[in-house]
Amino acid sequence: MPQTSETPLSLGQWLELSWQRYKDRLWEQLTIGGLGSAAGLAAALLPAALPAFWWSLRGGVPIAVWIAAGLLSVSGVLWTMGWAQAAMAESALAPEKLGWRRAFSLSWPKVAAFSWVCILWFLVLCGGLFFFVVPAIVLGVSLAFAPLACVAESKAGFSALEASFSRVRGRWWSVLGRLALVGLALSAAAAVPWVGWILSALAAPFALIAAAALYEDLRRIAGPEGSPWPLRAWLLACAGGLLILAGIGAGAARAIASLDRGSLAAAARTLMQRPLDQEKAQELAQILQGGATPETLSQALAVIQSSQPVSAASEPRP
Fold first, then answer.
1. Residue 128: its pLDDT value, please?
2. 287: left (phi > 0), else alpha (psi -120 to 50), else beta?
3. Distance between CA 8 and CA 15 in Å, rounded?
């Protein structure tokens, strides 16, 4: 039955369309992915020549040279992998085969925006996980097409997030079911003994192509974009989760920084030279149940330092 502009693709029609495109573009997708992986490996290894060159000229390598080489390596890997992923998305979204050269050419101007959208998507999910998990589940589905919106509609930043959110609105459960079906297929391919890594590599392009076909269908039937405030409310909740995560990290860092390194070394020597008896071990466990705060860590150090050697009678028999 022909589809009208208001009729979404059925599950069977979506799978059939995805399978046809997969068969047509498999080698194109694998070529793009393989070239991206090779470029990422080269970008990771080539900056190592900088410290080697410096050492050949002057001997010792300053820490600044190592830091510069590391930053170049990380930046190169992120850029090349982002370019390859954007090119694969360009190939998956195109009505006809592009060819890997054309896909790389079209995606080059979008690499920075595509990478920024992926970073935002990752931060939103991290914040949602630390804010009672529910926002991460809702937004993981609602924002799943933000990178595709960046490639297909040239949207950047939060505009791409809002585009994905508005496309999925009203069909959230349907989208969840279809994405879960693709995820199960990927998991089943990876779980096959011995050849799972090969099958998962072959199945990954299908997941991307299926997501692209679903995004096109959502875009075709979606009405005008609504108010961005529903999404912004969810993003505020995720920002709260990120603040919680940052607070936990800052508290742990302060607790560690507040301790004297000499006291830590002495406590470690004490534990090696004279293990805690059962009573002290239980006291130490109760203190540490309160979390890693400066107070609890100081109390733990005091318990270790006041411990007595385990008597021979209390030692376990061999």
1. 77
2. alpha
3. 13
Report the chain's terminal Cα–Cα distance, integer Å: 79
Question: Of 35-39, 65-69, 148-152, which gets the smallest average pLDDT?
Answer: 65-69
Residue of higher predicted confidence among 54 and 198? 198
Contact in structure between 305 and 269 (CB atoms under 8 Å): no
Token readout for 30 is 């694998």
Q: Which residue has the higher pLDDT, 79 or 271?
A: 79
Closest CA to 162 of 172, 151, 152, 149: 149
Rounded to the nearest 5°, which phi and psi values hold at 7?
-105, 120
Q: How far apart are CA 52 and CA 54, in angstroms?
A: 5
Asked if residues 22 and 44 have their Cβ atoms less than 8 Å apart, the reply is no
> ∠ at Cα 42 (40, 45), nearest 5°?
110
Q: Whole-prediction pTM value?
A: 0.73
Distance CA 249, CA 156 (A): 30
C-alpha pair distances (Å), 226 with each of 157, 166, 290, 298: 18, 7, 47, 54
Q: 278-287: long-range contacts (C-beta < 8 A, 24 or more apart)?
A: 278/314, 280/304, 280/306, 280/307, 280/308
The confidence score (pLDDT) of residue 316 equals 47
* Two structure tokens written together for 227: 């108010």
Rounded CA gap, 38 and 62, in Å?
29
| Rounded-to-integer distance, Cα 72 and Cα 229, Å | 39
Q: Does pLDDT of 308 surpass 60? A: no
> How far is residue 73's CA from residue 65's CA, in Å, rounded to a whole number?
12
